[in-house]
TrEMBL record, chains A, B:
This is Hydroxymethylglutaryl-CoA lyase. Belongs to the alpha-IPM synthase/homocitrate synthase family. Belongs to the HMG-CoA lyase family. Pfam families: HMGL-like. The keyword Iron does not apply. One of its GO terms (biological process) is L-leucine catabolic process. Residues 13-281 form the Pyruvate carboxyltransferase domain. One of its GO terms (molecular function) is hydroxymethylglutaryl-CoA lyase activity. SUPFAM superfamilies: Aldolase. The keyword Metal-binding applies. Keywords: Lyase, Metal-binding, Transferase. InterPro entries: AIPM/Hcit_synth_CS, Aldolase_TIM, HMGL, PYR_CT. It comes from Mesorhizobium alhagi CCNWXJ12-2.
Amino acid sequence: MSQVAVAYPADRVSLREVGLRDGLQLVKNWPSTDEKREWLAREHAAGVRHFEVGSFLPASRMPQFADVRELVDAVSRLEGARSAALALNERGVADAFETEVDEIVCVISATEEHSQANMRRSRAEAIDLVRMAARMRDERGHKAIVNAGIAMAFGCSIAGEVDQAEVLRLAGACIEAGADIVGIADTVGFAGPRQVAELSAAMARLSGGAFIVHLHDTRGMGIANASAALDAGCRVLDGSLGGLGGCPFAPGATGNVVFEDLVFLCETKGFATGIDLDALAAARSVPKHAMPEEKFYGAIARAGLPRALDWRA
Amino acid sequence: MSQVAVAYPADRVSLREVGLRDGLQLVKNWPSTDEKREWLAREHAAGVRHFEVGSFLPASRMPQFADVRELVDAVSRLEGARSAALALNERGVADAFETEVDEIVCVISATEEHSQANMRRSRAEAIDLVRMAARMRDERGHKAIVNAGIAMAFGCSIAGEVDQAEVLRLAGACIEAGADIVGIADTVGFAGPRQVAELSAAMARLSGGAFIVHLHDTRGMGIANASAALDAGCRVLDGSLGGLGGCPFAPGATGNVVFEDLVFLCETKGFATGIDLDALAAARSVPKHAMPEEKFYGAIARAGLPRALDWRA
């Protein structure tokens, strides 16, 4: 069985907690390494198994991710848990392979304009980085899977509309370059469920297996989009505890789709997550205590679970 | 063409603003009649056409609805707008027919337990009230359509699980009793999109035409459930500006599905609403100013519309 099929079995839903990476991308203060370990441990105890924990970048550029190696280690000590981390340049990829990280995430922009503005490199160069990561994986026999995430896949805050055919072309190029799995990201929360369903169905055909849908709740469509992705065959979804992680292009907007609400959605749709929702909601106290100035979202945490009936499908 | 087909054409989505009724059900303070008129006028100017404006009840019991007649009149002066109001007992129905209201809403609980607790009458008696309203409509040749709304249709905070067959039986009994249209309400926000899709599809078959889905966003599933209802053939959905309208069974929980976000959802799915979303979001200022202590929700109002592209499908 391929590493991807082990990490993301086809017969169940896998939910990736990206709060420790995407959720900390824009914050002014962040939890200490110990607090992050506690955060991971609490979510792991609730049943979460996939954690994106940071980015391999110089600490001078993104000090909130300076402890990425310690967190990769922390995840490796949690039974059945898998770590993922971003690597946005050659140095980051090389650094990542020096660790026991389970998944290395490279990012490709759907549009040339965003690629240049965000990463100061072309999309072709971004795909070259995927190729380099895949080659390093193969040469070293490293266990890490290479994840190529396509940002702005549903519309770009700079270039505007994004043709789905172009996203699929890029996804194909990433697979061709050796990516084990491809993700599509609604980076700025432009998508509606119809668009998500269409692109997800096409990604299911293209990948022939697992692919990731990464959604932001900027315009309130997060859970509806996740539902559409599940209906279209997606089995790997990202979220963040309390919806942590704002949007640089929409000040004051909510962040990633709320992990707790995403779990509730999956369970009502008949996808067992293995996650204890009460314990998950209680885990919010760790990042909330560490970042009292941040806003945490989520309806389950606010209203509680239905108690009068079994809400699991 | 039937009155229902005129009110709710089959070839488009109709969105019912229930904020002036459901949204004011639990508030301690409410807008003055003039402020409510301004609220209606602003939403009408934005393109909203369906307004539930109160309940025909003694002012001593629900003082926030004491001006229901004035609001029915106010709506009748807004071009193309239609008013609806609740009538929960014989007196209310009789009073309603003394006005020019366009739609009289009777409520039936999906469970006997909730029916007794909420209305101190049995479900059979609630259906008798529908029958009385339908008879009065026919005898007087009154233009009003009779709407039978089934509360707790997706689960009951008292009785727990609700069998879909039972909801369909009640819906059929309401139609048999003369209801022009039936609604299904997720009164306490228990539903997920799968359940909404299933019951909506069954309601589409049963009604052979229009039916209403009334959702609360208590557990964050509101927009996802609306999307599922649309996919299953529902073309009439309720919402409230800013998601006004809490839940008596989940303190602190959000209320109805947010009208603005519902409009965005519909448009991204290719259902033209005729509603100007910027103007709609701006109309929030009226109830917000009148009820500064109430919390208003909604992602579109917070993040704004996507500006880089045309988000309408």
